[in-house]
Amino acid sequence: MSATSAAPALPAQYAGTAAAQVVAGLPSTTVVCDMYEPRGAEIYHDFALGDISEAQDILREVRAAGPGTILELAAGSGRLTLPLLALRREVLAVDLSASMLELLRTRLAQLPPSAAARCTVIQGDITTYVAPRPVAAAVLGTTSVSLLTQPQRQAMLRRTWENLAPGGTLVLTSTQIVEDAEDLAERTLEVRGASGAVYLMHDLVAPDRSGRYTVVIGPDNGPQRSRTVCHSYIRVVPLDELLADLTAAGFSVEHTATLPGERYAATLIGVRKEGAR
Ligand SMILES: C[S@@+](CC[C@H](N)C(=O)[O-])C[C@H]1O[C@@H](n2cnc3c(N)ncnc32)[C@H](O)[C@@H]1O
Questions:
Q1: Whose Cα sits closest to atom 11 in ligand 1?
Q2: To test ligand 1's pocket by mutation, which of 49, 53, 147, 216 has the most ligand atoms within 8 angstroms of CB?
Q3: Ligand 1 pocket check: which of 81, 144, 213 to mutate, most ligand atoms within 8 Å of Cβ?
Q4: Are strands 31-34 and 264-273 parallel, antiparallel or unpaired?
Q5: Which of 11, 91, 96, 129 gives 20 to 30 Å between its CA and that of 30?
Q6: In which order are the strands placed within the sheet that holds 135-140?
Q7: Strand partners, 70
Q8: How many whole angstroms from 200 Cα to the centroid of ligand 1?
Q9: Longest dimension (CA), the chain
Q10: Are 108 and 101 in contact (CB under 8 A)?
Q11: How confident is the model over 34-52, as pLDDT tens digits?
Q12: Whole-angstrom Cα distance, residue 216 to residue 199?
């Protein structure tokens, strides 16, 4: 009797979607994982290398915050870390994912040693991370606040407030579904990574608009390496709820700005810990 391998499957919340159907039809050797696990991190990084979104807006905010160490929360493989280092400031780059940080270390190794030396890479949870000294600015870009549950978000904000020096600034971005987006049906698009690999991306909005799901199907790599499918869930945090959490954590909100998009927009929020800089 020959053993039969199970068909690959996305987690239960994808049941009934076109993405789940496509994945079920892939070879049983297909690796299905979270976006920030080792195989998913490779795919994320391949996209992130060419993605400059938010970078200029965040750099402007950080420059305006004045000199001093920058705490980069959820730094990942360094999409924003490298531009932050270009400001010639010390950067504490914190992320939970060992795989993403490995990719960041590889990128740092390609920088001039004096620039790489200004970055400290820390594997840690941004809800509990304690900085070795108060920082002038903290950054949580790429709408990564949306990866946290509400209790995690509140813990991260309290922790970040503690990590900032008086007068310090936190800059974060959050995702919103564009109010008058006409068509929120599941859609698929082909995306080319920096390596030239072509990925099939499924973009889904939860029926109650409380979040969005992304599924990325990697290319057929031939017999050498199994195929990868990675997925991520991004909460859509109502702006008033996020602003209330920021205020409850002790921040004063300085400004918000919308970074427009076709289906999703990002809101950039600049907040400050009271006190003299
Ligand atoms: C969308 S990626 C952003 C990475 C990077 N900032 C960029 O622009 O490409 C989100 C990152 O958040 C990290 N992450 C999620 N939850 C975290 C937590 N509780 N603590 C630290 N990092 C976390 C993931 O490992 C992932 O690297």
A1: 74
A2: 147
A3: 144
A4: unpaired
A5: 96
A6: 119-123, 91-95, 70-73, 135-140, 164-177, 264-273, 251-259
A7: 91, 137
A8: 22
A9: 75
A10: no
A11: 999 999 999 999 989 888 9
A12: 6
Give me the pLDDT at residue 179, please. 79
Judge whether 270 and 261 are in contact, CB under 8 Å: no
Q: What distance in Å separates the CA atoms of residue 66 and residue 167, rounded to the nearest whole number?
A: 10
Task: Answer left, alpha or beta for residue 78, where phi above 0 means left and psi between -120 and 50 means alpha.
Answer: left
Q: What number of other Cβ atoms are within 10 A of residue 221's Cβ?
A: 11
Indicate the SS3 state at residue 54. Answer: coil
SS3 84: helix
- The atom of ligand 1 lying closest to the CA of 125 is 20
CA of 125 to the centre of ligand 1 (A): 9
On the question of pLDDT at 231 being above 80, the answer is yes
Q: Which of 142, 201, 176 is nearest to 260 (CA)?
A: 176
Ligand 1 center–CA 96 separation, angstroms: 7
- Over residues 4-29, the mean pLDDT reads 93
Question: CB of 100 within 8 A of CB of 34?
Answer: no
The Cβ of residue 108 has, within 10 Å, a number of other Cβ atoms equal to: 21
Paired tokens of 68? 């001093």
Positions of E strands within 39-196: 70-73, 91-95, 119-123, 135-140, 164-177, 187-192
pLDDT at 1 over 50: no
- Tell me the domains of the chain and their CATH numbers: 16-35+178-235 (no CATH), 55-177+237-273 (3.40.50.150)
* Residues with a CB atom less than 6 Å from ligand 1: 36, 48, 74-76, 79-80, 94-97, 100, 125-127, 141-142, 144, 147
